[in-house]
Specification:
With about 130 residues, this protein is mainly α. It contains 1 helix and 2 strands; from the N terminus they run H-E-E. The chain has a two-stranded antiparallel ribbon with strand order 1-2. Strand 1 and strand 2 form a beta hairpin. It is rod-shaped. The N and C termini lie far apart (about 115 Å).
């Protein structure tokens, strides 16, 4: 019986152990490949959506630029109105005041009797 175990059963057990190890390795590789396929599918979907996302980003950028320009314009218009109002009020107190500059940062007037700019103008508007 010992000879049968050594000659037949032991080699068959070795074959089974090697086959099980190979099966575990293949299962692990299969899982890795499945994960790679999921990643490739996700990348493919993102590539397909890229033109749409780029267009959406372009539209959002244009909307932001427009909103920023509108805001800047509203600030300038408000500053100009405040400059004209402040000039009229300061000229009522001191007719020598020729210009008033309003800072768009803090909205505080600074009168001037110099005649470098036109009455009611804001800084940078000439």
């Amino acid at each position: 019986m010992r000879a049968f175990t050594q000659d037949v059963i032991t080699p068959q057990q070795q074959v089974v152990v090697e086959a099980e190890a190979a099966a575990r390795e293949l299962a692990a590789r299969l899982e890795q490949n499945a994960e790679h396929l999921r990643e490739v599918a996700e990348l493919t979907e993102l590539r397909e959506r890229l033109p749409e996302l780029e267009k959406a980003a372009e539209i959002a950028k244009a909307a932001y630029t427009t909103a920023r320009q509108d805001t800047d314009l509203m600030v300038k218009q408000g500053t100009d109105r405040w400059s004209r109002h402040a000039l009229r009020r300061m000229q009522a107190c001191d007719p020598e005041v020729n210009t008033v500059s309003i800072s768009s940062k803090n909205s505080s007037p600074s009168p001037s009797t110099e005649s470098r700019s036109t009455p009611g103008s804001s800084p940078g508007t000439g």
